[in-house]
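Dock pyridoxal-5'-phosphate; give full complex structure.
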Amino acid sequence: MENSINIFEREEEILLQTYKRIPIQISHGEGVYLYSVDGKKYLDFFSGLAVNALGYGNKKIIQAIEEQIKKYIHLSNYYISSLQIELAEIIVKYSGLSKLFFTNSGTEAVEASLKLIRKYFGPDKKIITFSNAFHGRTYGSLSLSGKEKYKKYFSPLLPNIIQLEFNDLEHLEKNVDTNTAAIYIEFVQGEGGVKVASHQFVNKIKGIRDKFGFALVVDEVQCGIGRTGRPFAYQHYNIEPDLVIVAKAVGGGLPLGALLTNKKYDNVFQQGDHGSTFGGNPVACAAGLEVVHEVFVNELVQIVADLGNYFKSELSLLHKKYPDKIVDVRGLGFMLGVELFNSCDGLVNKFREKGILVNCTNENVLRILPPLISTIEHIDYFINIFNEILSEDK
Ligand SMILES: Cc1ncc(COP(=O)(O)O)c(C=O)c1O
């Protein structure tokens, strides 16, 4: 324990204080569990913020990484690595899009998309994003953010970006026209409080896109790669995106992201228009291949859909039992949110004391992001502990 106290003090001295750290020091992970240096075991229903789809210590990912690092760890993008092709082929097949560009992160894929949109539509057309949206921390993606608290010290941000109310059909109709280049949307907002786009809203977007010809850019950084019980969250709707952004789980825990385009936009970028030293790193692609094999090809995504329905129905029973504490239960698959009447920081601490790691977003929304390999037993365990906490809390 002394060691872990030291490390927290040292962290304050040596690292910029941008993160509010969780006060446990992790020694290792195995499956859906994390273990602290003082020997405590935690059920991790946060999964590295939707990164660790296959949990910790996945043997296939480890083997793929080991095999690749013996061949080469890095290869300049002046050369082509067959792993990039293999991974791109699977992602393209399951997304229904046409081509992709590899990045190292979600925010970089968003930046790539902004450049592509500006190149195609020119500098003056407006870009629409939504309240509570989150697309990353670099300047372009921050400009798209719907959260004032992330933006307030950093102006000037990119011009010609307009924020509309999420799920507000009228607001959308009034503000979209021939001068609109793109709409950016997360079909399930993550940071924004696990808010799901309504079918009417998405149908409206579809209708006005047919009319005005803007690009629909779908951010699947958090809700993609099987998390919602479909390969991509937009597949819950009757709509085909123009651009799709993925990251997080796609690299199996290593830094990887991608911008996908449909046929209309797949030759906007020409040689030299965009690039990245590390984007599509072969070790990350090797790890990512194991993830997409398991989630898409071996259909883990179907199990997520079934168990996600079960998990949500169990949470809804708790909602019925504690109507004075829970406002709403929402989400899809293994991306679930429980909105509470009060702030959920205290609740997260109680979960941790009882051996479960879970997150609080948007002040009062408990965000539950289990590894996709979680079983019904893990879900039941979570529900029992949640019930215990709610019943103790007078
Ligand atoms: C929806 C969404 N878009 C973009 C990002 C940014 O991704 P990254 O942190 O990999 O830059 C995130 C990160 O949480 C996200 O949730």
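Observed: Residues 326 and 340 are 5 Å apart (CA to CA).
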